[in-house]
Amino acid sequence: MLPAPTPRLRFRPMSAADLDAMAGLLGDPSVMEFYPAPKTRDEAAAWIGWNERNYAEYGFGLWILETVDGLFVGDCGLTWQKVNGVPMLEVGYHVRSEFQGRGYATEAAAACRDAARAAALAGELASDVLVAIIHPLNVASRRVAEKIGMVQWDDDTGGALPVRTVMGMTLV
Fold it and tell me: In this structure, which long-range contacts are made by residues 45-52, counting pairs with CB atoms below 8 Å and at least 24 apart in sequence?
């Protein structure tokens, strides 16, 4: 269920060959500001492995996000996450700090939303809801979720942080 390319971006599966790029992205304190800590190189390798398992099991995960010219922008995609103990389909996105503020996250998240909607309408997705789980202070990420049509649904109190805002929308 790879999202269709956008006018500026394309998606592809992550692989071990992306370790340097992903370690740089997930190790950047600015990108990971609202996570408990930036990820180490070993944690970035585990992140890639987790996504490879997601592709194999579900047909989706977080994908490498590149410009149409092949420049690494970040990652974006769909994963199953628990919200207050209930599995929900989440759209997630991380954009390199030097590319933030240019609309890439919104463009990529909208493409993922559209792919999830098409799969849900075709009966190929076991969810008719899409969420984004966001740290309450992450205003930029909340704006991305709002721009793709999400509204605040809930607060998640079962995650790594004391409370995470859950933005959501129905797909069908």
Answer: 45/16, 45/19, 47/22, 48/14, 48/15, 48/16, 48/18, 48/19, 48/22, 51/13, 51/14, 51/75, 51/77, 51/79, 52/13, 52/14, 52/15
pLDDT tens for 113-159 read 999 999 999 999 988 999 999 998 999 999 999 999 999 887 776 65
Amino acid at position 77, single letter? G
Helical H runs in 8-67?
19-26, 41-58
Assessment of whether the complete model's pTM goes beyond 0.90: yes
CA angle 87, 64, 113 (to 5 degrees): 50
Sheet holding 86-95, edge to edge: 9-12, 62-67, 72-83, 86-95, 129-134, 164-170, 151-156
What separation in angstroms does the CA of 103 have from each of 60, 62, 93?
Answer: 23, 18, 12
**pLDDT of amino acid 161:** 57
Place of tokens 């805002």: 165
Helices (H), the chain: 19-26, 41-58, 104-121, 139-147
